[in-house]
Amino acid sequence: MSISTQSTDGRWSSRWLFVLAAAGSAVGLGNIWKFPYIAGENGGGAFVLIYLVCVAFVGAPIMISEVMLGRKGRASPINTMRKLTQEAGAGARWTFLGWMGVLAGVLILSYYAVIAGWALNYIWLTASGTFDAASAQVAITTFDQLQQDPLEMMGWHSAFMVITIWIVARGVSRGLEAAIRWFMPLLFVLLLVLLGYSISSGGFAQGWAFMFDFNWSVVGPETWLIAMGQAFFTLSLGMGTMMAYGAYVPGDSHIGSTVLTIVALDTFVAVAAGLAIFPLVFVNGLEVGQGPGLMFVTLPLAFGQLPMGALFGTVFFVLVSFAAITSAISLTEPAIAYVVEEYNAKRSRVAISLGIFCWLLGLGTVFSFNIWADLKPLFGLNFFELVDQLSQNIMLPLGGLLIALFAVWVLPQSIAREQLQVTSKRVMFCWRVVGGVMAPLGVAAVFVYTFLPFFIG
Ligand code: PHE
Asked: What's the CA-to-centroid distance between 214 and ligand 1, angstroms?
C-alpha cells in the first residue's frame, strides 16, 4: 500500500486497492462493536433508519468531498488544506480543519486501542474454550471480570498499541496489503456464518423487529446526534483519513462510484453484525441496552453453541482485531503524514511518539470501566464517554460539515468538475445541491436541534 511511502508521490496500484484500504479503514470496531450497542441503547428501529439516512445523504457526499480534496492536494490533510486554500484564494483559517482532524484522530485512537485490546483478549478466551457450551451467566461474568481488572485491560491495550505502531512505523508493507485482500472477505464470510446461526436461533424475528420496526416514541434530539456521529465514525469521515488516503488515488479513477462501493460495504457489515447480535440478545434474555459489552457477551455465547465454536470464535476475534488494526492505522495517518512531510522527520520516531501519547491518554478509558467508573467530571459522563462523544458526535460532524462546504463553495468549480469527471451541467448541479447544501444543512440542523435547548435552557 502506498501509505507506506514517505512522500505522497506513491499511488495506489489500482482503484481496487484503494477500495480495500479505505474499506479497511471504514470497517472496524465501529461496525461490529459500536453500531449494535448504540442501536441497542437507542431503541433500535428508528435509530437504525436515521443512521441509514445519515450514511446515504450526509456520509456519502462528504466522503466524495474528502477523497476529492485529497486527490487534488496530494499531501497530508493539513498541507492539502493549505495548498487548496491558496489555490482558491481563500482564508488560511480553513487549515484549522486539518488540525482538528489530527486531534480527533488522537482522541479516537486512545480509546479505540482499549476496546481493540478486549478483542485481542477474546481471541485467547475463545481459543482456550472458556465459552464452550457456556451459559449467558458465564459470558457476562467473563466480561465483567475483564472490566474490573485495570491491569489486565492495560496489558491488552498496550499489546494492541504496540502492534499498530509497529506496523505504522515500518510503513504499511505488502504483507498487510495481501492480508487485507484475504481477511476482509473472510470477515464477511464469518459474519454470514454468525448470521446463519442467529437466523436458526429462534430469536431472529424478534431481532429483526428490533432493528427494523420504527418506534418513533424513543427518538429525541440526541438520537439524531448519536446516529449522525455514528455515520461519521463508521465511514472514517470528518478528520482527514479519507483525505489522506485520497491523496494516493490514481488520477483516472472515478471517485463517485468508488466511494459508493466503500459506503455499501461498510453498511453491509454493520447491519449484518446487528442482525447477528440482536436475535441472540433476545433468545438468551440479555439486556439490549447493556452498552459497550454487548458484542463481547452475545457472540461468545453463539460460538459456544456452534460445532467447532472455539475455532470459529477464535478466527472471528482474530478478524475483528485485524479490522481494528487497519482502522487504527488510518487514525494515525493524518498526523504522521503531516509531521513526516513538514519536518522531514523519521516515520518510525513520529509513530512511536504518537503511540506513547495515545497510550497514556487511553489509560483514562481503561480506568473509566473500573477505578474511575464513578468519576464523571462533565455532563455526567465518565472519561471514556467524554472522549468518545466529543470526538465522534462533535468533532467529526463539524469537520465533515466544513469539508463539504469547502469542496463545493470554496474550491473552484472547474477543479471539482475535473476531479469528479463530470461533464453534464445537470449532474454538477445535483452534486452541488447534495454536497454543498443538503449534507451541510443536515449536520447543522442536527447540531442546532441538539444544542439549542441546552443554550436557551
Ligand atoms: N471507521 C472506523 C471504525 O468503524 C473508525 C475510524 C474513525 C477510523 C475515524 C478512522 C477515522 O471502526
From this structure: 27
